[in-house]
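Propose amino acids for all 90 sites.
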């Protein structure tokens, strides 16, 4: 299950994000999304967990949890919408 996490500290890296989820089960991947221009964290990322039950428990327990003074928002990731509101006129 792919999980979307937002609202975390800009200092959090992918390893720290993974460490938040490992108490609930195996983590396949974790990724903090970085700004392409500045190379700094954008404050959100994704974690992939192969066990849906463990992932659901992690989402339940971590959603709203305060880490470094910031409340996490943790939800199942939705597929990227190709029509994200941007005009694709040429």
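Proposal:
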């Amino acid at each position: 299950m792919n999980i979307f996490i937002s609202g975390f500290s800009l200092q959090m890296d992918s390893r720290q994000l993974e460490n938040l989820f490992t108490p609930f089960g195996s983590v396949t991947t974790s990724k903090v999304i970085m700004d392409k221009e500045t190379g700094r964290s954008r404050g959100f990322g994704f974690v992939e967990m192969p066990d849906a039950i463990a992932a659901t428990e992690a989402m339940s327990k971590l959603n709203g949890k305060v880490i470094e003074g910031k409340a996490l928002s943790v939800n199942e990731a939705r597929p990227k919408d190709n029509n994200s509101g941007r005009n694709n006129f040429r």
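The mean pLDDT is 91. The first strand starts at residue 2 and ends at 6.
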